[in-house]
Specification:
By secondary structure, the chain is mostly helical. The chain has one domain. 77% of the residues lie in helices and 2% in strands. A two-stranded antiparallel ribbon has the order 1-2. α1 packs parallel to α6, α1 runs antiparallel to α9 and α1 crosses α11. The radius of gyration is 21 Å and the shape is globular.
């Protein structure tokens, strides 16, 4: 493989990894901190992409980001209200919202399943114009993605140290203790899911503007990809109390996952097989630490069994 091709492959993986890492950071907040597995991620990601695309098509690429995050907040609030106020199971509430968002997304797209943004000005084209004539002119997508990831990471690192952030973390650890401390766990759950889904909507919006197109299936499998990336990140950063390190691990996990995707495509793997690759990565990421912890026990059993057979 020529070195230039390798560099282009790595840059593309880095760009897509950073954009999708925003969804991973959202899952870090909802799944790792709040202990809620939000299955509305796929629909929320698509919602952010469709809302952002429609607003960008009207000539407002920056406003598209705010609109996409606002749509994500509404999605997260709906999911949270279903499980905290209406007694719907957290997994089921995510599935219900994800199903309903399919119709919402089609409606946002004006009844179409595809939006073309080839002639639309985006935050990436604006960044490219800003960097024109500099050595970084070809890194406009990377620059926008880096700025977004740094902003979200810094926000989360600071937010999780506030009183509200600590309450959200405590809700994920022990909701009964939080309730006995005169903190409303329903409120912290709603806030946590609203913030998390705002980042998911932002991720969808940036991917739509980067690809200059949106289809109704753009968010399919994002919850699996984000979960796999988060688990990969945990193997590097661990599950300690160092929040900045864990956030960096989540971002690194997203980049590594995209790199695996790119390598699979480079070896001419059919596109329909990539979902299976995602599932296998999730299985390895989940089962790997468990099997590693069980290895000493299995080894002792094998030694004990071989000793019996020798007799």
């Amino acid at each position: 493989m020529p070195f230039s091709v390798f560099v282009d492959l790595g840059q593309t993986a880095l760009e897509l990894g950073l954009i999708s890492s925003l969804t991973v950071l959202a899952l870090f907040l909802s799944y790792s901190m709040l202990n809620v597995c939000d299955l509305s991620t796929d629909g929320c990601f698509t919602l952010g992409a469709t809302v952002g695309a429609v607003v960008a098509l009207s000539g407002h690429p920056y406003l598209a980001i705010a609109a996409a995050m606002g749509a994500g907040i509404l999605s997260g609030c709906t999911t949270a209200v279903l499980q905290t106020k209406l007694g719907v199971d957290s997994l089921l509430s995510g599935i219900i919202v994800n199903t309903g968002l399919y119709s919402v997304n089609i409606a946002v797209m004006g009844g179409a399943s595809l939006l073309n943004m080839n002639k639309t000005e985006t935050v990436f084209t604006k960044m490219a114009a800003l960097l024109q004539g500099t050595p970084f002119a070809r890194q406009s997508k990377l620059a926008v993605a880096l700025i977004a990831v740094l902003a979200v990471s810094v926000f989360l690192a600071l937010f999780l140290r506030t009183r509200l952030g600590l309450a959200i973390r405590a809700t994920g650890n022990n909701p009964d203790m939080v309730r006995s401390s005169s903190i409303n766990p329903a409120f912290t759950t709603i806030v946590g899911l609203c913030v998390a889904n705002a980042f998911t909507g932002l991720s969808g919006c940036l991917l739509a503007q980067a690809q200059k197109s949106v289809n109704i299936d753009i968010g399919t499998g994002m919850v699996t990809i984000a979960l796999a990336s988060l688990l990969i990140g945990n193997t590097f950063a661990g599950k300690g109390r160092n929040i900045p390190l864990r956030l960096a691990g989540a971002v690194l996990g997203a980049v590594i996952f995209r790199l695996v995707y790119m390598v699979a495509l480079r070896f001419h793997m059919p596109a329909f097989m990539l979902k299976l690759v995602s599932s296998v990565i999730v299985i390895i990421a989940i089962a790997g630490p468990y099997l590693k912890s069980r290895f000493p026990v299995l080894r002792r059993r094998l030694v004990h069994r071989s000793g019996k057979e020798a007799r």
